[in-house]
């Protein structure tokens, strides 16, 4: 006599809990993710095979060089940014209002001569970006040394990195390195793009 096969019942899984967990994770990552910091200009750094990541644990002071040779400064340390603004405004006799300070803190990049500081700080960061032509670093007027000096005075543990475009003039890099050395900053990193190791 043939065996009677038992009818198979399909297994049903309740996916409600899985959906809840997926949406909770998605919400968590969306709310805690940091946006990529804005850049004053588009910079394509030269490539290298170095695999050492930037050490940003104690804060980072990034000096960027555009293809045209403009020098820009950015830092993720909010205390250092506030300290730099106060000291530079005092040095050049600029009375900083609460609105000007808010505009400065909203923009992560400094990229203008101090003669234009009052005008730039009275503008929204998106509008002020159009006036960013770079910080003067020539021998007659080296404003970068003051910005860097005040940043390091505020936070001596601040790491310094130089990010330059592969088409930038080498003389600008030499001037930046000279400025850093004049401030007794002899340890800094150069930002490069990744490249595969030769076979």
What's the arrangement of secondary structure elements?
Blueprint: H1 16-32, E1 47-48, E2 60-65, E3 71-75, H2 78-91, H3 98-106, E4 109-110, H4 117-121, H5 125-128, H6 143-154, E5 159-164, H7 170-182, E6 189-191, E7 193-194
Parallel strand pairs: 1-7, 2-5, 5-6
Antiparallel strand pairs: 2-3, 3-4
Helix pairs in contact: 2-6
Structure summary:
Helices cover 37% and strands 13% of the residues.
Record the strand order, biggest sheet: 4-3-2-5-6
The number of distinct β-strands equals 7
Helix run count: 7
Oligomeric status: single chain
Order of helices and strands: HEEEHHEHHHEHEE
Q: What coarse outline follows from CA principal-axis ratios? A: elongated
Question: How many discrete domains?
Answer: 1
On the 0-100 scale, what is the average pLDDT?
81
| Structure classification | alpha/beta
For the biggest sheet, the summary is: 5 strands, mixed
Question: What's the helical proportion of residues?
Answer: 25-40%
User: Mind telling me the C-alpha Rg?
Assistant: 25 Å
Q: Give the low-pLDDT segments.
A: none
> In percent terms, what proportion of residues is strand?
5-15%
The CA-CA distance between the termini, in Å, is: 71 Å
Features:
two-stranded parallel sheet; elongated; 199 residues; single chain; 7 strands; alpha/beta
What does this structure look like?
The protein is of the alpha/beta class and about 200 residues long. It has one domain. The protein has seven helices and seven strands. A five-stranded mixed sheet has the order 4-3-2-5-6. The protein has a two-stranded parallel ribbon with strand order 1-7. Strand 2 and strand 3 form a beta hairpin. Helix 2 crosses helix 6. It is elongated, with a radius of gyration of 25 Å. About 20% of the residues are buried. The mean pLDDT is about 80.
């Amino acid at each position: 006599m043939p065996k009677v096969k038992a009818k198979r019942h399909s297994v049903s899984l309740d996916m409600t809990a899985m959906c809840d967990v997926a949406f909770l994770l998605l919400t968590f990552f969306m709310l805690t993710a940091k946006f990529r910091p804005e850049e004053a200009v588009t910079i394509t750094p030269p490539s290298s095979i170095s695999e050492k990541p930037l050490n940003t644990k104690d804060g980072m002071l990034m000096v960027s060089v555009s293809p045209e040779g403009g020098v820009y400064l950015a830092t993720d340390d909010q205390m250092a940014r506030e300290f730099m603004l106060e000291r530079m405004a005092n040095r050049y006799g600029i009375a900083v209002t609460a609105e000007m300070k808010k505009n400065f803190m909203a923009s992560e990049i400094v990229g203008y001569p101090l003669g234009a500081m009052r005008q730039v700080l009275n503008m929204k960061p998106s509008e002020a970006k159009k006036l960013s032509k770079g910080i003067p670093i020539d021998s007659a007027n080296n404003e970068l040394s003051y910005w860097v000096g005040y940043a390091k005075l505020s936070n001596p543990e601040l790491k310094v990195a130089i990010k330059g475009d592969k088409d930038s003039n080498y003389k600008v890099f030499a001037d930046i390195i000279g400025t850093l050395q004049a401030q007794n900053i002899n340890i800094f990193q150069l930002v490069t793009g990744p490249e595969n190791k030769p076979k």
